[in-house]
Amino acid sequence: MTATPQIITPGQPSKPMAVPERPILDLSIRHFERKTGPFLLVGTWLKKGRREPCLVILPRFHKIENAVPCVVPLSSAWRWSEEYGDELWAAITAVAFARVLPGLNHLKVSDVNKVLDAVRGSLGDLANMPPAPVTKRKIAGDLKFTNRETGEVTQKDILDDV
């Protein structure tokens, strides 16, 4: 019996969501990578919508293939700030991250603080990430529109990242 892969994102820290069939992260495309404490911190882009920059926290000393990536999108990065953020939200999310990262105990304040420190130490790098690089695209489908009044036919290709 195989477990359904999960991904933890801010917003609903206590309820991991199931990973969609199509991955929303491509960890082969990285703006930065840093090893700090028990974490591998990766700056990459979410592959949904407008390809938002994000910080991905992975275990440094365990197999990444089996890991649950903990994701901090740029749009919610402000919540982690000590000065302007939401301390309660950041703490609850850090507990959720510590719960799924191997080698951490989500009930130990020191382990939760390791997560908080890792995220807060990477906020500057995350905020300074450029737009996502252009990736190869392939035609995934064809779409035809017919104007009922004029009979004009417009054809468009549906593109997808490779």
Describe the structure.
This protein has three helices and eight strands, in the order E-E-E-E-E-E-H-H-H-E-E. With 162 residues, the protein is α+β, with helices and mostly antiparallel strands. The protein has one domain (6-135). The strands form three sheets. The chain has a four-stranded antiparallel beta sheet with strand order 3-4-5-6. Helix 1 (87-100) crosses helix 2. The two termini are 30 Å apart.
> Any low-confidence stretches, pLDDT <50, length ≥5?
1-5, 12-17
User: Helix/strand/pairing class, anyone?
Assistant: alpha+beta
Q: Could you report the average pLDDT, rounded to the nearest whole number?
A: 81
Query: What would the principal axes of the Cα set say about the shape?
Result: elongated
Terminal residue distance: 30 Å
Count of alpha and pi helical runs: 3
Taking Cα atoms only, what radius of gyration do you get, to the nearest Å? Answer: 19 Å
Q: Secondary-structure element order, as H and E?
A: EEEEEEHHHEE
Biggest sheet architecture: 4 strands, antiparallel
Strand order of the largest sheet: 3-4-5-6
Number of DSSP strand runs? 8
| Fraction in helix | 10-25%
Number of domains: 1
Proportion of beta-strand residues = 25-35%
